[in-house]
Every structure is written in C-alpha cells, then in structure tokens.
What we know:
By secondary structure, the protein is of the alpha/beta class.
Amino acid sequence: MDRIRIVGGNQLTGSIPISGAKNAALPLMIASLLTDDTLTLENVPHLADVEQLIRILGNHGVDYSVTGRRERQSEGYSRTVHFTARNIVDTTAPYELVSKMRASFWVIGPLLARMGIAKVSLPGGCAIGTRPVDLFIDGLQALGADISIDSGYVTAKAKRLIGTRYVFPKISVGATHVLLMAATLAKGETVLENAAREPEVVNLAECLIAMGAKISGAGTSTITIEGVDSLHGARHAVIPDRIETGTYAMAVAMTGGDVMLENARPDLLQGALDILAQTGAEITTTNSGIRVRRNGAGIAPVDITTEPFPGFPTDLQAQFMGLMTMSSGTSRITETIFENRFMHVQELARLGANITLAGQTAIVEGVSKLKGAPVMATDLRASVSLVIAGLAAEGETIVNRVYHLDRGFERLEEKLSGCGATIERLAS
Ligand code: EPZ
C-alpha cells in the first residue's frame, strides 16, 4: 500500500489550482440516470471516488467518455466527461459496489423516478458513524414510492412518483440530493422543507434546471420542484472544491507562507474563511481565487462547532484541529454532524498534539511544536489533517493508508510540493 512521506518545516509559497468538487461531481454524475440524452460535466476531478461511481453507473448501463481539458502542466487534472444513460440495463445496485462508496446509494432516486423501480443495497455504516438511510426511505415514501427492505436491499417501486410537501426531520445533504432528483420527474409539485443548503445542492439543482427541470429555492431551506415528463441532456460545470480549498488554506495557516488558491470561490466557504482569519491568517480574494498568507504571526486559538451549511463544515473539522494543535492557547472543537469523527485525535497525539475528548467536543491545548511520526487514519478528511500537521511538524512523518487521500484529493503531493513542501509518495 502506498504511503506519503513528508519532511516538515517548510513554509508554503506559490499557487495551488483547486479542482472540481468531489461532493458536487458525484450527485451530478448520478443525475445522468434521469435522461436518455448525454449529460456533459466539465471540471470533473480525477479521483478514486469518481472512478468508482463511473463503474457503478456503468453497471446500470451508463456509457461515458472523456474529452480532456487536460488543463494544467500534467495529465489528469479535472476533465470533461460525457455520461449517456440511453439504455438502463440494470436497476439493481449490488452490495459489492455500494458498500465501497456510500454516495452510490443515491442512484435510488433517479432510477426509481425514471424506471419505476430501483433495488439498491443498504450502504452500511462507515468509519465516521452509523449513517442510516431512514430519511431517504421516508422521503421517497412521501413521494408515493412503495418501499420494502429485505436481505440488505432496499427495493423502491412507483409507476410514477407524485409531488408532495416533505419536511426533512433532520438536514441531510444526500437525502436532499435524492429527493430533488426524484421529484424532477414526479407528477405535480414537490416542496422540500428543511432541505440542505450546501453549494453542492445548488450545483445539482442548476444542472437539473439545464436538463429541463423546474426548480426554485435551491440554496435556501425550501426547494420547490414542479415535475416534468422527461429531462434532456445538458452541459454543466462542477463547482470548485470548497473542502480542498479550506484544506490548503489551513495548511498555509499552519506552516506560514503565501499561497494563491486558483479558481477557489470564497462564497462557498465564507464561514470557514472568517474563522481562519480569526486565527491570524490573512485572506484576500482576487479575480483568480483566494490568497492565504501567514507571515510571522502566531496562530490564535478559536472555538468552532460543525454545522450544516453555511456553518463550519464537518469535512474541515479534522484539518482545523490540525491547525489548532499549534495555536497559542486552548480551543474547543465540537462535532455535531457525525458521532464518530474524531479518529484523527489519537494520530495527531502521535505527532505531539495535546487533545482531550469530552463527548462531542475536543479540547485542544496548543503546543509550540509537533514532531514527525508514522501515522494513519480511517477516513479521507482525517488523513489530510495528518498531512497538514506533518507539513508543520519537525522531521519526518509517514502517512499510511494513502488510498483515503486518493478518494478526495487530486494530485495532493504535486500541488503541495509545487509550493515548496517536501512531500512524496512511496510506492509499495
Ligand atoms: C455528505 O454526506 C458528504 N458526502 C460528506 O462528505 C459530508 O460530511 C456530509 O454530507 C455532511 O456535510 C458527499 O457529499 C458524498 P448527510 P451525506 O446525509 O450526504 C444523518 C467526505 O469526506 N442521516 O448530510 O451522507 C447522518 O448520519 C464526506 O467527503 C440520517 O440520520 O451526509 C449524519 O449524522 C464524508 N439519516 C447527518 O444526517 C439519513 O437517512 C448528516 O448527514 C441520512 C443522514
């Protein structure tokens, strides 16, 4: 298994191109199931999760082709991908595929809406928590689906879904994506209340509108969808990745330096940027992206609580904890979205961090320096928090289980070494 070797201590200086967002690309790709025309997506990142979803969609009969914008210095940066679901050959998403990536459960919405039936494996829990699917089932039932659960599979049937008013009992990004997609082909009007307001939901809604859907209110907590009989093809761009943006911004805040995050959009993560500014980083927005600087000043401690958008994202919690390990005081980090998202705490401790857990809150006492060590993590964002900490630590850090990073960070080593970091992949 590949590992990443980092020798910490270098400031980061230069520019980093921000890729298309993984968590926007995945639902957009799934939306291709809603039409027999071609859906062309620009700025699709080259990531393990994207490749896995291509396999899953292929199993349903979706053809795809890549016409590159191989836009940067090397091949493989975000591409233009064409998805065509002319013939859906299989409405079952099997356990072997769904268990590898939770978001693949989301095919249930478009398959049901277009084909009248979908049989999708339950995704199971994952490293960050139990992650049930009750909201998906409840919401699809509200749209008139007949749902049964048997032998680990959810089977949903409906001749045609029927518009309804549905109030999410809890905010869920995935369930909002799924009900939004399903409702586009339902008969009549659907009103989704307490919907997720994440930028990825807006990106999906804009794509669906380009495909002929009638949607208003995406980005607010009430989304209204007037069902149509069919959708057509479209061309649509994936938004820049706000989590990748925040991750590199925190890396610079931690190591010091001056980096331009090209193509980054501040409106996608303003809450997190404001917090970062409170820690002492200088954030400026230009036409080409976001510039992050920290020169000389220390890192001020700041308390955060993760919340649905526009609050502080859970997907940046681990990275922010990495930053706070070297602050000049005590910070409290509270996780409210997932019940088990502190696996990085023990690994950061291996680098010399001083963190105490009290239920859903981590109390981080800043230390003046971290020291490199071998570490590993069990999820994507936790892994990258160890990379950030390793960049600021003295000496060598080896990050094991690199496949987590490959799920969500495009060319991580190349982007960081381009800014002066000593970081390399050690092939197994
Ligand atoms: C999306 O996951 C993201 N994944 C996650 O990013 C992100 O952490 C999460 O949203 C929150 O922002 C993708 O977009 C692919 P949720 P999702 O449904 O949609 C509970 C990453 O690292 N819930 O908003 O699965 C759930 O357990 C990943 O890129 C139910 O109780 O998250 C959680 O506590 C990790 N019942 C809360 O809602 C349900 O039926 C929010 O989860 C569904 C969810």
